[in-house]
Amino acid sequence: MRIRLGCIADDFTGATDLANNLVRAGMRVVQLIDVPSDADRHAARQAADADAVVIALKSRTVPAADAVEASLRALAWLRSVGAEQTYFKFCSTFDSTPDGNIGPVTEALMSALGTDFTVATPAFPDNGRTVFKGHLFVGDVLLSDSGMRRHPLTPMTDSNLVSVLGAQTTRPVGLIDHTAVAGGAVAIRVRIDELRAEGVGAAVVDAVTNDDLLRLGAAVQGLPLVTAGSGLAIGLPANWGVKPSPTAAQLPPPAGHQAVVSGSVSVATTGQVREFLRSGRPAFGVDPLRVAAGEDVAGEALAFAGAHLADGPVLVHSTDSPDAVRAVQGQLGTAEAGELVERTLARIAQGLVERGVRQLVVAGGETSGAVVRALGVTGLRIGPQIDPGVPWCATTLPDGDTLHIALKSGNFGGPDFFLASFALLGEDAS
Fold first, then answer.
1. How many whole angstroms separate alpha carbon 48 and alpha carbon 86?
2. DSSP state at residue 25
3. Distance of CA 106 to the CA centre of its chain
4. 3-state DSSP call for residue 216?
5. Domains and CATH numbers, the chain
6. What letters, b where the CB count within 10 A reaches 16 and e where it falls short, cover 218-239?
7. pLDDT, tens digit (0-9, with 9 covering 90-100), for 233-277
8. Dist. CA 352–CA 262, nearest whole Å
């Protein structure tokens, strides 16, 4: 068995984001939730029928040593099924701290693969993420001036990715700037050779358009390891002669009730929650302090949802302003508050599915990880794109029903994302 591309994603929404771009480029993609066990023959059978396998981890904000251990287990499994090239996928806003986890995981994968060089670029122009002179822009502003500056878990106050990655690694970090990228694959390879000769182990790569990513994709053909956001995925399938296919994203027709579970505190998701509330549709807000006090908030949320599901989409959210989130973290502790919310929302998602929800949108990477684990999801089929980076997916429940699920990064999607998601799924089925 040999698959072409073996991918390791540091969170669940990032994994679907990456798989989405690969499917759009024509690859048959299987997304697995966490590393399969040696006894999991089903996962191996799924991989046998795929061009690419994406393993979704929950390693973005765990201790660096735990992220490295999980990533190396994922690599070992992907190598066991014959992956020709490895792709480490991180967030398009380079979410990390001075201690990691992007740098430590990258170095560990390089050592395991026996390679002395890799590239790193979170660029995803379709979603407003571009890199110029090594600096990451979110839309028209530097990363350090975006909403990520105030992220409660991974505040990003430096836009210079050479500096950010360099602080996390023992290997020197260099830059492949826009002049080399504009010269095409040959010019990029020349620059790679120059950096290697200087002892550089990883290079941040400029990219401001999709054409830049296509040129970079051609240049890294045969490189054992690439690290990037999901954007680089558009430039890799062509290295194996794969072309876009109109049937690659087909899913079974949707059925059942519709619901949204949101745990993200990102600016984009906050706006999406606000827009849903403005539409006048039913929504239930989860108060972490009430949960911490022992109140049955999950039960209340499910009772509320049960009374409204027949009338259309219902939203259950813990999304709040950054100041409110910090206030809760000050009382409960940052990690404790996050885990409390994740467990609660996962329990609510479980109850919603038990009550007949078969179209479920989940907002937030950590929340998505908790939800898919609570639902016992082990694999996903990737379907049509809702917004850049966010596809509908499908999985089979124990009772044989199909659950359509969208796992959305907190930073992605327009203001009307929640309602537009369900409209698109209905249109795709028709």
1. 17
2. T
3. 17
4. helix
5. 5-240 (3.40.50.10840), 257-429 (3.40.980.20)
6. bbbeebbbbbbbbbbbbbbbbb
7. 999 999 999 999 877 788 899 999 999 999 988 889 999 999 999
8. 13
